[in-house]
Request: fold
Amino acid sequence: MKVYLDNSATSWPKPPAVLDAMSTYINEYGASPGRSGHGFAVRAAREVFETRELIASLFNVESSERVIFSANATHAINIALKGLLKKGDHVIITHMEHNSVRRPLKYLKSIGLIDVTIADCCEKGYVDIDKLTSCFRENTKLVVTIHGSNVSGAVMPIDRIGQICKAKGVLYMVDAAQTAGFIPIDMQNDSIDILVFTGHKKLYGPPGIGGLCIRNGIHIDTLIHGGTGSRSELDVHPDFYPDRLEAGTPNTLGILGLKAGIQYIIAKGIDSIRERLGQQTAFLINALKGIDEITLYGPGTSENRLPLVSMNVKKISPSQLALTLDSEYGIMTRAGLHCSPLAHQTLSTLPQGTVRFSLGCFTTDKEIDYTINALKRIITS
Amino acid sequence: MNYIILIFQSTHRTLLAEKVLLGHGIKFDIIPTPKEITSDCGMAIRINPSLTNKGMVISILNDSKIDFNLYEKWMQ
Reply:
């Protein structure tokens, strides 16, 4: 039996419509969108346009032309941070951030451009709002928080943080890599200025596609200059969106797969997917919490959380446990730091990390039962 | 025939205009942007003035706050 429980890294399997959309594009009209006016190019451009409109509607983005495609969330975060921050700016992040946020900021700090303050979080992974509020300075330009922790599963109160930032006149960027498609996000109601998403997790698209949504009135300088299919006679890069931040041939294949993935979750119902995965996650947590050898991390089952379980077993390292689960039971998990050493500092799980079981909308109850039994056998053997 | 050619800043805005005009039942074609007009964007909207009222198109796009440039061009 093969059980894939690494959906927080990349969701698998994908809805069949994702591959259908991608193969139709490759086989029937695989042209460059927006670079010509012929039939294939127009059809490809329409698909890309409709995907932007779909994403704008999903996250309540003011203008669909401010939905920018990138290779992944890390790429989108780099576009935003490096295109937005200027010398002397101060940035606040939390102690649950992924390296995708921490590393580019550390780099910008190391070259003397910015300063960064890290707000503390509780042992479950929630940011302490009072401590976050005390981090603001006169030169604070931006607050960046993860929406849902890939390590503990905690979901941050982004609407509250958004209100605080709005009141202070500071920009708020949300890293929704783990939550986009799982928890409803409303950029305008939640006061989010920049929203980063990836396509290959809970939007059920392929790897290699992600993006950012930018509120009207905010301008981000591009990292990459080049062909856009627009203003071609000029030797300067266009300043309008989306062209401003999208030089070069886009990943139309990935965009079409992403569109099909989003249509799938909308048809299935984001709320009903979350409810079912919440029940399965709670079942897994409740089955494991009675076992003395197991330490569970993150919020309890009654809290708003992601469908993942981070845990450790006494006297077995995370890497050894993951190896045994895979080699003897065919259960695929992720062991270690999950690219988030800051979060492990918060959970006191450095340096070994945790084993993470992450569920997706194709995970079955039978697979959960099998995983619980496998863990019990490993512990008693 | 002398056609009306609508040019937009970006491909995105051209397709936004397409969506809005289709929603109003306006008939038009998408064509490669005639290079003697501009190289702003690879595609343009072409309207046959004998089938569609020019003023109505202008008013729909203005109401939708979609910026455009309008040209007239003789095409076969």
Notes: The mean pLDDT of chain A is 96. The radius of gyration of chain A is 21 Å. Chain A touches chain B at residues 33-38, 41-42, 45-46, 49, 52-53, 64-65, 229-233, 238, 240-243 (CB under 8 Å). Residues 141 and 170 of chain A are 5 Å apart (CA to CA).
